[in-house]
Amino acid sequence: MQVRMSDEVLGKGWLMGRMLLETTDEDGRTPLTLALYRGDTALAAMLIVAGANVNKQDKLSNSPFLLAGAKGYTEIVRLCMLHSANYRVFNRYGGTALIPACERGHVATVAALLTDKRFPIDHMNYLGWTALLETVILGDGGPQFQAITRMLVQAGADVNQPDKEGFTALQHAVSRGWTEIVQLLIRAGAK
């Protein structure tokens, strides 16, 4: 026997599913956010495709999109971007998904974020750092941070944007002795 569902029943089922996707725990975490905190990217991908909100922030101001950037979950970042990621939703430090991805050396994630020319590459967080500044200040100057610096420069990052204290990425790189990054910045017009 085949059962036919009315549009009304199907509509209610969709609404119930949507409500379950957006249910939050005491910390404001949705099932999608929890999946990402636990590192379950397969479940996260299924939830995103099912319509989970990639911009919903928890009590720590983390959204699925921001978490994916910070944790280096490149495929999840791409999925979030395809499912209406809001580039103006910021973490508790006032940062975008790009800033912690740069700081932690997630090369592939940075590359994915930079594919959208609308991404605010020179956004400054509450600490007074852009993605480029955070790459130099908090990175170790090694190959992955050199690659990220190169990508940011090629994407048009402002190489002369100073931090809150007035120091540029070049000045920070010189003070740390990171010759490769210094050369990359100088070739890009850093002063």
Automatic annotation (TrEMBL):
SUPFAM superfamilies: Ankyrin repeat. It holds the Pfam family Ank_4. ANK repeats lie at residues 27-59, 165-191. SMART domains: ANK. Gene3D superfamilies: Ankyrin repeat-containing domain. Keywords: ANK repeat, Repeat. This is Ankyrin repeat domain-containing protein.
